[in-house]
Backbone:
C-alpha cells in the first residue's frame, strides 16, 4: 500500500487527532484512527517501520 | 402424504454456501463496469468489481486493465465476467507477485474447523477463459495464530479461448487454527498471474505451510504480453469435498453483502446533486452525519474524487459555497454504522446554519466508504 501526503486531522469538537488524511494508492482518503480499519493498520505498520511520516495537524 | 425431513437429514443444507461474495461479478459499485487500469504502486488494491482485489507484491511492476465483460459461459445464467488483460508487461524476478485476490471474513467461516482433526475440505470452483494457456497457481492463505499459512493448487486450461469450469479441492489445515469470531480475514485466495522465483517450488501441490511458497515454478507468466486476456465468473468456495451448482443470490442480497465492505453515495451529476445535510460549525466548516447501512465491517475509510472543486456546500442565505479541500472524516466517534464528514468551503457560512453538502454543478461527485479486508 503506497501512502503519501499523510497528515493528521483534528476532531472539530475535542481538538484531538482522530483521522489521517492521505493519498493511498492514488486515491484521496480520510482514514479514521480505528484499530479495525485496514488502512490505519497499514499506516501504523509503516510508521513503526520508519517508512512513513505523518505531518502534524493544522 | 407429506413426510417431514429434519434439516439434519438434508445434505448440503448450509445457507449461503458460497463463501465468496460477488463470485458472479454482478456488483460493480466503484466505477460501474468501466475499464480501470490498475498499476503497480499507483492504484493497486480494490479498484474495480466489488470484493476483488489486484496486487503487485514487492514492486512487481506492470499494469493490468480490469473491466466488466458480457463474455460469459453459455447457458449458466451469468450476466458478467471480470476481464483482465496486461496493459504493461512484467517479468517476475525475486519475490515479485502479481495476483487477483479475494478475502473472506473470518467470522463467515467458523465451521471449517481448522486446527482440529475435523478440518473441512473446501472446494473452489470458477469459470475461466483465457488465450494464455499454461499452468496457473492458486494459493489459499489463512492467518494462523500470528503466522500465516499457505497452500497452493494448480490448474491448466484445456484449450485457448474456451470457457471451462475449474474445480480445486483444498484439504483442511488440521494443525493450526485461526481466530474465527473476528472481522479480520480468515481465508485469502490468490490467483497467480506471474511466477515469483523466490516463492515457487518444483511441485504441483504442497501442504499447508508457513514458508512463502505460493506457486509452481512452472507457473505461466500471464503478464508477458499485452494481448493476453482472461475472463472469470461464477467463483464459488464451499465447505465440501465436491462441487455444486453456482449459488445465485437475489441482486439486493448480493448488493447488501458487498455494502458491508464498500458503500458509495453519488451526487446525481445534474445541477448541484445532493450528498447529505449538516450544519455549519464556523464560517468555513460544515459537518454532516452519514448513516451507513448495512453496518460495515469496520469504521470505514472515506475515499473521494480527489478534487476539491467537485464538492460544494449550500446554505439558504448566501447560496453555494465552493469547497477548498476534499471532504474528510471529522471526529473519533465514527463507527461501523455512522460517521461524521466535514466539508471545508470558502468562508460564507454562519455558525449553526443548516447546510446541504453537494457535488458541484453537473459534477457526478461521490463519497465512497471503504471497509475492505
Residues:
Amino acid at each position: 500500500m503506497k501512502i503519501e501526503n499523510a497528515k493528521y486531522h483534528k476532531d472539530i469538537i475535542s481538538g484531538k487527532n482522530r483521522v489521517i488524511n492521505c493519498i493511498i494508492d492514488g486515491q484521496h482518503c480520510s482514514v479514521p484512527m480505528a484499530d479495525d480499519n485496514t488502512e490505519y493498520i497499514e499506516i501504523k505498520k509503516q510508521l513503526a517501520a520508519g517508512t512513513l511520516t505523518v505531518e502534524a495537524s493544522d | 402424504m407429506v413426510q417431514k425431513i429434519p434439516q439434519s437429514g438434508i445434505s448440503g443444507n448450509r445457507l449461503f454456501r458460497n463463501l465468496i461474495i460477488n463470485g458472479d461479478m454482478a456488483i460493480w459499485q466503484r466505477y460501474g463496469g468501466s475499464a480501470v487500469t490498475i498499476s503497480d504502486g499507483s492504484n493497486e488494491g480494490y479498484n474495480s468489481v466489488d470484493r476483488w482485489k489486484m496486487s503487485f507484491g514487492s514492486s512487481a511492476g506492470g499494469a493490468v486493465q480490469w473491466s466488466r465483460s458480457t463474455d460469459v459461459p453459455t447457458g449458466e445464467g451469468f450476466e458478467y465476467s471480470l476481464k483482465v488483460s496486461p496493459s504493461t508487461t512484467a517479468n517476475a524476478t525475486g519475490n515479485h507477485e502479481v495476483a487477483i485476490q479475494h478475502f473472506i471474513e473470518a467470522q463467515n467461516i467458523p465451521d471449517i474447523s481448522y486446527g482440529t482433526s475435523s478440518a473441512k475440505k473446501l472446494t473452489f470452483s470458477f469459470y475461466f477463459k483465457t488465450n494464455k494457456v499454461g499452468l496457473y497457481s492458486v494459493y489459499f492463505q489463512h492467518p494462523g495464530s500470528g503466522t500465516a499459512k499457505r497452500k497452493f493448487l494448480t490448474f491448466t486450461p484445456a484449450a485457448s479461448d474456451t470457457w471451462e469450469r475449474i474445480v480445486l479441492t483444498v484439504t483442511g489445515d488440521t494443525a493450526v487454527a485461526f481466530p474465527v469470531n473476528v472481522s479480520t480475514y480468515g481465508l485469502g485466495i490468490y490467483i497467480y498471474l506471474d511466477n515469483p522465483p523466490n516463492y515457487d517450488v518444483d511441485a504441483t501441490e504442497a501442504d499447508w505451510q508457513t514458508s512463502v511458497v505460493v506457486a509452481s515454478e512452472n507457473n505461466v507468466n500471464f503478464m508477458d504480453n499485452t494481448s493476453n486476456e482472461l475472463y472469470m465468473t461464477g467463483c464459488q468456495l464451499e465447505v465440501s469435498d465436491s462441487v455444486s451448482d453456482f449459488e445465485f443470490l437475489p441482486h439486493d442480497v448480493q448488493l447488501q453483502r458487498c455494502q458491508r465492505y464498500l458503500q458509495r453515495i453519488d451526487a446525481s451529476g445534474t445541477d448541484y446533486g445532493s450528498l447529505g445535510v449538516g450544519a455549519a460549525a464556523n464560517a468555513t466548516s460544515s459537518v454532516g452525519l452519514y448513516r451507513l447501512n448495512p453496518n460495515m465491517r469496520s469504521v470505514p475509510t472515506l475515499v473521494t474524487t480527489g478534487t476539491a472543486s467537485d464538492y460544494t456546500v449550500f446554505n439558504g442565505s448566501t447560496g453555494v459555497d465552493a469547497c477548498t479541500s476534499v471532504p474528510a472524516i471529522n471526529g473519533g466517534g465514527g463507527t461501523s454504522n455512522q460517521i461524521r464528514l466535514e466539508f471545508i468551503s470558502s468562508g460564507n457560512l454562519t455558525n449553526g446554519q443548516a447546510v446541504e453538502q453537494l457535488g458541484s454543478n453537473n459534477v457526478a461527485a461521490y463519497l465512497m466508504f471503504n471497509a475492505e479486508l
User: Anything to note?
Assistant: The longest helix of chain B spans residues 251-259. The CA atoms of residues 68 and 301 of chain B lie 25 Å apart.
